[in-house]
Write a structure and sequence with these properties.
It contains eleven helices and 56 strands. It has 870 residues and is mainly beta. It has four domains: 8-90, Phosphorylase Kinase, domain 1, CATH 3.30.200.20; 94-160 and 179-320, Transferase(Phosphotransferase), domain 1 (Orthogonal Bundle); 355-593, Neuraminidase, CATH 2.120.10; 596-860, TolB, C-terminal domain (Neuraminidase). The longest helix has 24 residues, at 307-330.
């Protein structure tokens, strides 16, 4: 079927043909709703009657529709036209990688750039359980601006079945069992040649073949016939690349060899780890910061055990050697006015932990060699351990579950008992003291966020909440600094005269700047706000504050700043890093995290939960009244510095990106989304779900938080604070005007609106949930609730309230009858996979309780002992 210009496929107008291939005809088209050009691939009717072609076409649509990553072709929509299926895709300008491979090697710099992008795209697909199985230069597109896109998921295979994911509802391409060969000869893995099941390690083998071809200018495996080519894949190793390209870094050839191991157990075990090593090698090759030890990647790469583990570690050594030599050659760039000098020793990253789980904190003991850390391994509760460099074993301490905050010069521990997250990254617990040898901790103070010992060991500086405000105190009870927002990571200077800390501009958000306060309460900000900030320690000399921060998402580097505000980069890597401590001898403890915030939910009447997030750090803004749509933000690396807002159906269909910012509310008719911005804190954008004109509402002098519509969509209610005032809820016309307060100051975060739109349930100023009239009046406490309860939704008749609170690693949801105070359990929500699970939060429900969504945070951590950072 040929489509002529002007033909309409729903909202898409055909502009002209782009080409044709084995899977259909491709046209340029115009999306009238979003005013953008797209590509539409149409499966001809003759192909549509072929079950195998139709199945592969549908497979490609569904697989690619599950993914949204800069290095994977984006799918916007799908449908049928006169019986012919079509898919609407991102319009690409450029050429395939095959067109770039002309029989000559690509430059090493360009090869590394391409390889990193391919690995990133594969990692995104593998994270969703999708294996490509037909990766080749023809299926990799190079855009005119140098971005690579992975195409054609028609042979994709789903490698996992998750109770919380939507993948189980998607059919896998038939013929994936033993005895059926799928793929392209020359780029198959050994297991594909043998017609065995292929997982993500098969894509890694194929990736190695493509990387070899980019570096050498010839295929890794080829023969006069397909049979001979497949035999070479099974039995032969390709010639060494260095024979034909003398400028090849030896670490890069080892990466290629590691990808091309015949046994899947001996290859890299994930594309994320592969990308990490490529990034580390690229950073070193450019003369930049030291590559953080990809030992974490290889440790996981050796998870198959035996020879695989040994091979993984052997493959890492040359890359580390290249990294160390790069540091010796480049030296360390110090801030203005300070001399530049080469470090005396190469930087060495040594792993201290090898288990799967989350590390919350770590500190050196007074000897500078023993490390105390808090971790939750293998899905078990948090525990305290000690470790020493050079030993692979950690020893548990005879102490209750706690987080380590500080170690005094005499070896006394400051612990945080019953640590739990309150809002976002904010946390709370009970401060306690205990000897390093073990025993029963002695409680010191409640509602504490963090603490640090004074250098003389005689007192503790604490961060805690009092009356809804965050306070930095030393000694306990004496105020040094307080804020409406929050404070984290207080650390005493080595001379005891100052305390460095992170000053965060918004509750729950880990954006922040480094500040310092002296014992006379004089505060000075030393840096601007970073997009993500975590971890503070003073340098060994005591003249700088070292911290980990990043400009986008959770990728953080190690920075240093002195008391004059001069800032420099100490070391960096493409990873989520948290600096835990620096010893007096200059040794450093760094925590590396593989972090993700997922979004889980159900559609109305469907008991099966599915993953509704999209990139790496999803935050739910609003669930539509009918439970069919979820508005959410991606606030991590994929979402960008200004975050990205998406609207997605709860059946798991691919989401639509609405723009930048944080989505907070949906209109009652479901046609409009409310979005706040990070750049203008008093600005609210009202964006259409489909066709329509967006508009902007300004609330001058206010810092907007959560915003949503009242019934009828004529007014909005929102949490906000004015400078010098604490957060509270307000109501105002959606067209603008003067906000009117609903709640007193200090009451203004998570809430639930009654079905009639007249009452707001929120955790009140006392020790219970309270109901506040929108138009003003006396609040009414909700019986049988406490300050630990968060309102999620009202019942449809307005007679009951659903509230939730912590329950182990998940949350327990109860239904509270407002008249009688009777409280009955409704459901406990927790992801099936609990490894590395930090918390479950931000529950939203429909008033009929037939649909809900919630988020979870997962961290898989490795602790490093680092020697040589300057």
């Amino acid at each position: 079927m040929t489509l002529t210009p002007g033909t309409r496929l729903g909202p898409y107008e055909i502009l002209g043909p782009l080409g044709a291939g084995g899977m259909g005809e491709v046209y340029r088209a115009r999306d009238a709703r979003l005013q953008r050009d797209v590509a539409i691939k149409v499966l001809p009717q003759s192909f549509a009657s072929d079950p195998d072609r139709l199945r592969r076409f549908e497979q490609e649509v569904r697989a690619t529709g599950q993914l949204n990553h800069p290095n994977i072709l984006a799918v916007y929509d799908a449908g049928t036209h006169q019986g012919a299926p079509y898919v609407v895709e991102e319009l690409l300008e450029g050429e395939t990688l095959r067109a770039r491979l002309t029989g000559m090697p690509l430059p090493v710099r360009k090869t590394l750039e391409y390889a990193r992008q391919i690995a990133a795209g594969l990692a995104a697909a593998h994270q969703k359980g999708i294996v490509h199985r037909d990766l080749k230069p023809e299926n990799i597109f190079v855009t005119t601006d140098g971005r690579l896109k992975i195409l054609d998921f028609g042979l994709a295979r789903y490698t996992r079945s998750e109770a919380t994911g939507g993948l189980t509802a998607l059919p896998t391409q038939t013929g994936t069992g033993a005895g059926v060969i799928l793929g392209t000869v020359g780029y198959m893995s050994p297991e594909q040649v043998r017609a065995q099941p292929a997982d993500q390690r098969s894509d890694i083998f194929t990736f190695g073949s493509i990387l070899y071809e980019m570096l050498s200018g010839r295929r890794a495996f080829s023969g006069p016939s397909s049979v001979e080519t497949m035999s070479a894949i099974l039995k032969e190793d390709p010639p060494e690349i260095s024979r034909s390209q003398h400028d090849l870094p030896p670490g890069l050839e080892r990466i290629v060899q590691h990808c091309l191991e015949k046994s899947p157990d001996e290859r890299f075990q994930s594309a994320r780890d592969l990308g990490f090593q490529l990034e580390a090698l690229s950073t070193t090759s450019a003369g930049g910061a030291t590559a953080i030890a990809a030992a974490a990647a290889t440790a996981r790469a050796g998870a198959g055990g035996g020879r695989g583990a040994l091979t993984s570690r052997a493959a890492l050594l040359p890359a580390l050697l290249v990294a160390a030599l790069g540091v010796l050659a480049a030296g360390a760039a110090y801030y203005a006015g300070r001399q530049t000098r080469a470090p005396e020793i190469p930087v060495n990253y040594g792993e201290l932990t090898y288990r799967q789980g989350t590390i919350f904190s770590a500190r050196f003991t007074p000897d500078g060699q023993t490390v105390v850390y808090a971790a939750a391994w293998d899905g078990r509760p948090t525990a305290l351990f000690t470790a020493r460099p050079g030993s692979p074993e950690s020893r548990p301490l005879d102490l209750p579950a706690a987080e380590i905050l500080a170690v005094s010069p005499a070896g006394e521990l400051a612990l945080l008992l019953d640590m739990h997250f309150t809002i976002g990254w904010m946390r709370s617990g009970t401060l306690a003291r205990a000897p390093l040898s073990g025993g029963v901790p002695r409680e010191v103070a409640r509602d504490v966020e963090d603490a640090d010992w004074a250098p003389d060991g005689q007192g503790l500086a604490v961060v805690r909440t009092v009356g809804g405000r965050y306070r930095l105190e030393y000694p306990i009870g004496k105020l040094l600094y307080d804020t409406d927002e929050w404070i984290s990571s207080p650390r005493f200077s080595r001379d005891g005269k100052r305390i460095a800390f992170i000053d965060h501009p918004a509750q729950g958000d880990n954006r922040g700047r480094i500040a310092v306060v002296d014992l006379d309460s004089k505060v000075k900000a030393l840096t601007d706000n970073f997009a993500s900030t975590a971890g503070v320690a003073w340098s060994a000399a005591g003249d700088e504050i070292w911290f980990t921060a990043g400009r986008v998402g959770l990728v953080r580097a190690v920075y240093a700043v002195d008391l004059a505000g001069h800032q420099r980069t100490v070391d960096g890597a493409p990873a989520d890093l948290v600096i835990a401590d620096v010893s007096a001898a200059g040794k450093v403890l760094l925590i590396r995290n593989d972090a993700r915030r997922g979004l889980i939910g159900t559609r109305p009447g469907d008991p099966a939960e599915r993953d509704l997030g999209w990139l790496d750090w999803a935050w739910p803004g609003a669930l539509s009244a009918d439970g069919e749509w979820i508005l959410f933000s991606e606030q991590g690396q994929g979402g960008g510095a200004d975050y990205s807002v998406y609207l997605r159906k709860t059946d798991g269909s691919p989401p639509v990106r609405l723009g930048n910012g944080a989505g907070t509310g949906l209109s009652w008719d479901g046609q409009w989304a409310l979005v706040t911005t990070l750049t203008q804190l008093d600005r609210l954008d009202i964006l259409p779900r489909g066709a329509g004109e967006s508009r902007t509402l300004r609330v001058p002098g206010f810092i907007l938080g959560l915003v949503n519509f009242l019934p009828g969509d004529k007014r909005v209610y929102f949490s906000a604070n004015e400078p010098g005032h604490r957060v509270r809820f307000y109501v105002m016309d959606a067209a603008g005007g003067t906000p009117a307060p609903i709640t007193p100051e200090g009451v203004g975060f998570l809430s639930a609106l009654s079905p009639d739109g007249r009452r707001l349930a929120v955790t009140g100023p006392g020790n219970e949930v309270a109901i506040f009239p929108i138009e003003g009046g006396t609040p009414r406490p909700v019986p049988a609730t406490s300050s630990d309860d968060i309102p999620a939704a009202w019942s449809k008749d307005g007679g009951a309230l659903f509230v939730y609170g912590r329950a182990g690693q998940g949350i327990r949801v109860d239904r509270v009858d407002l008249a009688s105070g009777r409280r009955t359990p409704w459901k406990t929500l927790v992801p099936a996979d609990r490894a590395g699970l930090i918390d479950v939060a931000f529950l939203q429900m429909t008033d009929d309780a037939r649909s809900y969504v919630y988020t979870y945070r997962r961290f898989l951590s490795t602790l490093y002992y680092v020697d040589g950072l300057r």
